[in-house]
Amino acid sequence: MKKYRLAIFVSGNGTNAEAIMEYFKEHSSVEVKLLLTNNPNAYAIERAKKFAVPHKVFAKQDFESEAVVECLWSSGITHIILAGFLWLVPKNLIRSFPDKIVNIHPALLPKYGGKGMYGMKVHEAVRASGDLVSGITIHLVNDKYDEGEILAQETIDITPEDTPAEIADKIHLLEYRFYPTVIESWLLR
Fold first, then answer.
1. Which of the residues 105, 123, 139, 172 is marked catalytic?
2. What gap in Å lies between CA 61 and CA 18, rounded to an integer?
3. Is 139 in contact with 151 (CB distance < 8 Å)?
4. Is 105 a catalytic residue?
5. Architecture of the 1-98 domain
């Protein structure tokens, strides 16, 4: 049976990373091998320690050079998961892992995507639009923010009274429920 070895890239708290590590902790063919972050203070590091997943902190120059790619290869990584990672993935990493990098976005792309659209900024834009539906988009990563092939979208209803924070809470529940299972389906297809 083929073994998939995941690296999770994260910039902050790491709640999605934790949901993914929990989901795959005893999986027969998928293993989270490494957590990488551009933020030495990311709480995701503590979450990785809880699952005995090694972590590495890297600087922008390491990300844009071959240093991160070499780290991934030396760790036997087969696929990359972005979970709240805020930097644009450089072309050399995309070339090294073609169609093997997946991201989650807290809105229904193509709406509310692109550079600068992350976290609460997305939910504020959704609220300002008057939309009564929002959701998540899980997509492959290319060299542009939020423009890769869509693998899955899940929706939630929102009310005119929902604040951006309440929309965010609803979105987080979708993320934790669906991101790990979509990753599994994508890998085992």
1. 105
2. 27
3. yes
4. yes
5. 3-Layer(aba) Sandwich (3.40)
